[in-house]
Write a structure and sequence with these properties.
The chain is an alpha+beta fold and 199 residues long. The protein is built from four helices and ten strands; from the N terminus they run αβαβαββββαββββ. Strands 1-7-8 form a three-stranded mixed beta sheet. Helix 1 crosses helix 4. It is flat.
Length: 199
């Protein structure tokens, strides 16, 4: 008996332009696919940065209002820590995840005078991109396309060095593999294991 092999291939969309308020993300993604000579295949998953979604949606505020934006994007404070740069707050965000500074971001904004905030409903953003890309792709190709979309965001891991990307929002894919009730390799019952496959 041979083991089944699963292969995950990551293909970047090179040359993606700077996104501005009001830009159509579906059109930008389709053009980037075309420019990179990438044909979508049934079962593909597009990963789109939350930053470009925030830019296209105009979810920005003046840099001087950063602290106020963190407060406005916070549901509750989970933890705080004094660092050399000041107080770091780990909070539950309006968008859902628990992260530092409510996801309010001053990096790669294309404008040093602003900060970006996360979309309130990242699943809806993913769903909108999915519907738009599928509709236009299927109209052009005449076929059916099973497509998943992940809206990703970068976050630190509290009190650890480094950042990772995670699925802030998703559409068209199963984001969690619920293993509760099954057994591990040693035959022990799994009570809490839910693998975050989208992350």
């Amino acid at each position: 008996m041979t083991a089944r092999t699963s292969v995950v291939t990551l293909t970047p969309l090179l040359g993606f332009p700077e996104v501005r308020r009001g830009d159509d993300l579906v059109e930008l993604v389709l053009k980037a696919l075309q420019d990179n000579r990438i044909e979508l295949a049934d079962g593909d998953i597009l990963v789109v940065s939350s930053k470009i979604a925030s830019k296209a949606m105009g979810l920005s505020a003046p840099l001087a209002e950063r602290d106020d934006m963190v407060v406005s994007q916070t549901v509750r404070v989970v933890a705080e820590r004094i660092t050399p740069l000041g107080i770091t707050s780990i909070v539950e965000t309006v968008a859902g995840p628990v992260m530092a500074a409510a996801g309010v971001d001053a990096s790669n904004t294309a404008d040093d005078s602003i900060v970006l905030v996360l979309p309130d409903d990242p699943d809806a953003v993913a769903a909108g991109i999915r519907v738009g890309v599928r509709t236009k792709w299927e109209a052009r190709s005449g076929g059916h396309l099973r497509l998943g979309v992940v809206v990703s965001d970068t976050a630190g891991r509290p009190w650890r060095i480094g950042q990772v990307d995670f699925a802030l929002g998703a559409a068209g894919i199963q984001v969690v593999d619920d293993l509760r009730g099954s057994t591990d390799a040693d035959g022990r019952l799994l009570w809490v294991t839910e693998r975050c496959v989208a992350d």
